[in-house]
Structure formats: C-alpha cells, structure tokens
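[Help] Beginner question about ligand-bound structures

Sorry if this is basic. My supervisor gave me a protein sequence and a SMILES string for pyridoxal-5'-phosphate and asked me to "get the holo structure". I don't really know what that means in practice or what format the answer should be in. Inputs are pasted below exactly as I got them.
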Amino acid sequence: MRLTVKDNLEVIQTHIRKSCAKVGRSPADIHLIGVTKYVGVERTREAIRAGVSHLGENRAPGLQAKQEGLSDNHDTVSWHFIGTLQSRKVKDVIPTVHYIHSLDRLSLAKEIHKRAEQAVNCFVQVNMSGEASKHGLPPKDVQAFLESLTPYTNVKVIGLMTMAPYTHDEEYLRDLFRRLKVLQTAMADAGYEHAPCTELSMGMSNDYQIAVEEGATYIRIGSALVGNEG
Ligand SMILES: *Cc1c(COP(=O)(O)O)cnc(C)c1O
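Answer (accepted):
No worries, everyone starts somewhere. Holo just means with the ligand present. The predicted complex, written as structure tokens, is below.
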C-alpha cells in the first residue's frame, strides 16, 4: 500500500530535524520543495494539504498542468522551476514561477531579463561532478558568470544549485556538497548586489540528509515525498 504524502512528509521532517541537530542548524532554515514531476494533480494536492508550500517541476508543460489544476491554491504555493529551461520556454514560465533553479548560461539570463517585469529569484546551476550528462557550469566558471550577469537586472541570483549523481557513496556526496558550500560562501562574500548568493539548493530523495548537514537551504524532494506514479 502506498503511504500518504503526510506519512512521507513526517519521515522526511524527522530526518531533517536529526540532520540539523547533528550540525547545529535550525530546521526553519531548510525549505522543502516537493517535486511533483512524477505525479498528477491529485497527489500534488495531497502534498499541499499535508503542508508543503513549495512545489517544483522540471518541465514547462508539467508546471502548467499543476498550476491550472491547482489554481485554487494560487496564494499558498511558491512554484520552482528546477529543470533545464529552454530559452523559448522562458516566456511561458516566467509569469507564474517564483524561483528558477537552472540558470546556466548567459542567453538564458538575457531571456529572463527581457521577459520578466521584476527581478526573478534564480539559482545558478553548477556541475560539481564533472559528468558530461549533468547540466550546469563548471565551478571555476561561476564567478565570471555572475559578473557577466550585472546588466540583466531582472535576474537576481539568490544562490547556487547542484544535482549530485545517484550513488550511495556518502563520502563522495558529502565532499561534493561541501565544495558547493565553499563556492557559495565565496560568492556571497564577493558581495555582488545582483547576486547575494546566500542560498544553496541541493539534496534530493537519495541524499537530502547529507545535503542538510552540509548547508542546503532548499532541498528538492520528489519520490521520497509523493512517490512515483511511473
Ligand atoms: C526530479 C528532480 C528532483 C527530485 O528527485 P527525487 O530523487 O525523486 O527526489 C530534484 N531536482 C531535480 C532538478 C529533479 O529533476
């Protein structure tokens, strides 16, 4: 029998509290994004009822379907676009998303700047593993990229994001998250007005406890929260 979203959420929140306690962080600093790309509107509604107030989708059609099906929850949900964003889709998602997690190129920043009426909260996606299949900038290019964004005032870089490879190698994951935290802190210390870089979007179903221990402020959880309708 499939667990309810509420049951899953309680387990996840317990894990978050434990991870926070281990390293002296406050659970209030961790924003849980329910990733609903695998499930339909009804299961997503269950997540909202359970108390999830941040929702993430990785494709524009999925985002639109959820937003239409859940339009009665308009005021209670913050929407996150977490997937690869094609420039031509920007105009479709911009009016309704609160956060974009996948900023990884200047052409995308230009398009966001052009289509947005006010500053959009963005994360710069970083490829920490070096795998060719992963999107994102190499860590060494992040600072120059942030500097190149200065003219595009509707792009506000609130932090860095990464997607770790799927592995049970805890030390590998810990090191990867730690390196992103170091980079994020350096970028925050650089003090760019358009890129405060105070946030860290990292951690998914497989690795969120490690990510929380290493400084994540936004975790993106799909299967462990809502399951997978396949
Ligand atoms: C699908 C997805 C997630 C959630 O994945 P789970 O392993 O199911 O938690 C998180 N982030 C991104 C970018 C995704 O595409």
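A couple of things worth pointing out: Residues 35, 37, 58, 82-83, 163, 204-206, 220-224 surround pyridoxal-5'-phosphate (CB under 6 Å). The first helix runs from residue 5 to 23. Feel free to follow up in the thread.
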